[in-house]
From TrEMBL:
It is a multi-pass membrane protein. It comes from Lacticaseibacillus thailandensis DSM 22698 = JCM 13996. This is AzlC family protein. One of its GO terms (cellular component) is plasma membrane. The chain crosses the membrane at residues 15-33, 127-150, 162-182, 189-209, 215-234.
Length: 235
């Protein structure tokens, strides 16, 4: 990763995260095939919904004959965290038009957001529409293609977990977290380690007491508040 913010660099910076998209995309395609959804429906779901967690929820709830309003509400709850993501990125694009901001917000994901936060450490906290647009489009294309391929070969891979596909996304986020920690020179490793520990503890407790549909949103807000408190009091 470097300080360049052109289209080609956006694609190149996103390539390492593509493996996570490929793994989970294939897994989703296989699950969709098992739920009776053909290649066209699977591809359209990835292009229109474009949310790994939400798409798995959609497929499972359709299989359970859930009401459409319940499916829509569940997807909205799971995707509510993207409001925080968009609010964090938006200040870097104040000079862009509303439609450009809407376009970026439409395609941004957890992965490209994490990539963006790491990129800031190399660009003196600057971003460009061209760079993030390239990252978003590349990730979007890989996800849709992987979902389609997964659906087409679904009958040949009855158990994707046997190939470690279920761990691909986790491994990708571990890598992005590592890059963020070593790249952020404004905060010491001790403070970052404390914040990571806070998130882990809250996620563990949240899995016990908080519904999974809002867990990430609640933990994100709480961790940010606690992290700011720790920084101002002890650092």
């Amino acid at each position: 990763m470097n300080n360049q913010l052109d289209f080609r660099t956006g694609i190149r910076d996103t390539i390492p995260t593509a493996f996570g998209y490929i793994g989970i995309g294939l897994a989703f395609g296989i699950v969709a095939r098992g739920g009776g959804h053909g290649p066209l429906i699977t591809l359209l779901m990835s292009l229109l919904a474009y949310s790994g967690t939400a798409q798995f929820i959609i497929v499972s709830m359709i299989a359970a004959s859930s009401a459409y309003i319940s499916i829509i509400f569940a997807v909205l709850m799971v995707s509510a965290r993207m409001i925080l993501v968009s609010m964090t990125v938006a200040p870097y694009f104040r000079k862009e038009s509303m439609w450009r901001n809407v376009w970026l917000g439409t395609l941004i994901t957890d992965e490209t957001f994490a990539l963006t936060m790491s990129k800031l450490n190399y660009t003196n906290h600057r971003l460009s529409f061209t760079w993030l647009n390239a990252a978003n489009i590349f990730a979007y294309s890989i996800w849709a293609l992987a979902s389609l391929v997964g659906n087409l070969v679904g009958s040949l891979i009855p158990n994707p977990n046997a190939f470690g596909l279920d761990f691909a996304l986790v491994a990708m986020f571990i890598g992005l977290l590592y890059l963020q920690i070593i790249g952020d020179r404004r905060m010491g490793l001790l403070l970052q380690g404390i914040v990571v520990a806070i998130v882990c503890v809250l996620m563990y407790l949240g899995l016990i007491f908080i519904p999974s549909s809002v867990l990430v949103l609640v933990v994100t807000i709480t961790s940010c508040l606690l992290g700011m408190g720790v920084k101002h009091v002890f650092f």
